[in-house]
Amino acid sequence: MEAKRWVSLVFLALIFVGLSSSDLFVKDSDQQVQAISFISDLKATILGFFDETWVTTEDANVTNEEIRPKHVILTPNLTTCHKSLSDADRPVYCCPPKRESLEPIIDFKFPDISEPIRVRKPAHMVDADFIAKYNKAIAIMKSLPYDDPRSYMRQANMHCIYCTGAYNQQNSNSLLKIHRSWMFFPWHRMMIYFHERILGSLIGDENFALPFWNWDSPEGMFIPDMYLNGSMVDTQRDSSHLPPQVADINYDYFERGLGPEDQISTNVAFMYNQMVSGAKKTELFMGCPYKAGEDGFCDGPGTIELAPHNALHTWVGSNLNTEREDLGAFYSAARDPIFYAHHSNIDRLWNVWNELRGNKPAIEDPEWLDSTFYFHNEKSQLVRIKIRDVLDSSKLRYAYENVENVWLNARPKPSVPPKIARQVLKMRENQNPFLDISNQAIVSPDFGLNGKRLDTTIRVKLHRPKTHRSKIEKEQEEEIIVVYGIDISKDAYVKFDVYVNAVDETMIGPESREFAGTFVNMKRGVRIVLNKGDLVVKRKTTFKVGITELLEDLEADGDETVWVTLVPRGGTGINTTVDGVRIEYMK
């Protein structure tokens, strides 16, 4: 029976090859190949037969229960690359010139331990020799033809493909995305790992390492000079944000008007919140657990992805472009060379966060560990790589030069003495009860807002189910604020901040302890499907922020209630509604 099965598979494969080379493909006006839908369906079916988890009941000692895979892997269906949308609903086509499913695929292998460790250095500290070498590598990469997967635009379009929903998931008609979940950190690590090795190979330098934009350090809070000259120039940047302008790592489309020293101190305090007090649990930092299939979808980014990641993409991109291209739009972001320095620092901070928690395994879920993606290496080979392959950067033979993380010692202080703040808030409540916002007559840990529009500040009073918790209890469970049912009516940029026990949120920001966190939604454009019936999953978003340490600093750990304020930024809440706010405890 085994022989019959393989004969059948070979026969089906021959049918597919014949169809693929026939005239059942059509060209659109842009000469882009579009497959007739039934061919795509047949292709997926045949590939499914070859899936590594496929077995039949004819195999010896195999039960029906054993036929079912122990877990379903999130991975792209390489046969499905199709048009997608830019952030402003303009069709974009990022797919490779030929289907990657037709290429030979090799499994990832760790670099040999005899290879030198590539040391990534802060971009503002590299020397002239390195800049010249990097310029040369970028120039060569930009000179390669588009059909070469090592070419600069092919590299940039990898980000476009995975960020705009150009792939379906394998064994599913759901689109695949790699932002706003626990896929964010490992996928980008894979991308810059291969990009770095390609650059090194183009100039024959096995020691070449990408620099990182050290925007969390005062000395690095400027666009590095090396990106203003030669091959690293991108004309599509906001000219008002070029040096000597200090970066606003919590940018919200509006200029704060802060002087250099104030902006730097605000940035440092913000980093403490995003890396320490607001990121004490894995999901808060890494993002929500996004899994395969329609039911596996989630939309809940971690602290660093929300900002500084999203904020700096927007801050660098040109204010003269509709979508703030290049860096400010997902489809074009990787066209700007500074993208790779930006994400190198994001990658470094993932290592730092792991070190802060003793390098204990953050996620042990096999569905995450075995999630699989595909990249071309320096030999133009298509490599299949799993998340479990990239969890230890030392095995990948790269490291980061040690720098001081000054934000570790930047724990914010309350803007108003807590006792005075509590008195002011109680007096204000007596004059104009917060509860009037939703006509809800009780105080509870779950405050329903019934889809209230976030076009103005929202204040609610929440009951805390647990008070006076011990140190061990706090370590075991993080108290969090959950803003749930966030519904953005159209694909739009949205940003709002969350404060706890704030007397006047208009006068304070991340430099004050009352600041709990920030929510940022970047326009994503994931709405074009390959075939009728393919799924674009749209669900309401949830924002979670840790407040255990914040409550200690506000002397509110023993209080039965807290006041929570949602503050929309830059007028971006007009297209957004919120179902409610509640307190939960995360293990």
Task: Tell me about this structure.
The chain has 14 helices and 17 strands. The chain has 587 residues and is of the alpha+beta class. The N terminus is likely disordered. The strands form six sheets. Strands 10-17-12-15 form a four-stranded antiparallel sheet. Helix 6 packs across helix 10. The protein is globular, with a radius of gyration of 25 Å. Helices cover 29% and strands 16% of the residues.
Number of helices: 14
CA radius of gyration: 25 Å
General form: globular
Low confidence ranges: 1-10, 19-68, 435-442
Helical proportion, percent range: 25-40%
Spatial arrangement of strands, main beta sheet:
10-17-12-15
Strand content: 15-25%
Terminal residue distance: 50 Å
User: Helix/strand/pairing class, anyone?
Assistant: alpha+beta
Specify the biggest β-sheet: 4 strands, antiparallel
Average per-residue pLDDT, rounded, comes to: 86
Number of strands: 17
Comma- or semicolon-separated keywords:
14 helices; signal; Polyphenol_oxidase_C; four-stranded antiparallel β-sheet; metal ion binding
Layout of secondary structure:
Blueprint: H1 2-20, E1 25-27, E2 33-35, H2 37-49, H3 64-67, E3 84-85, E4 91-92, E5 105-107, E6 118-120, H4 128-143, H5 152-163, H6 184-202, H7 260-277, H8 282-286, H9 303-316, H10 338-356, H11 366-369, E7 372-376, E8 382-386, E9 398-400, H12 418-431, E10 446-453, E11 458-463, H13 471-476, E12 478-488, E13 494-500, E14 515-521, E15 541-546, H14 548-553, E16 561-568, E17 576-586
Parallel strand pairs: 5-8, 6-9
Antiparallel strand pairs: 1-2, 3-4, 7-8, 10-17, 11-16, 12-15, 12-17, 13-14, 13-16
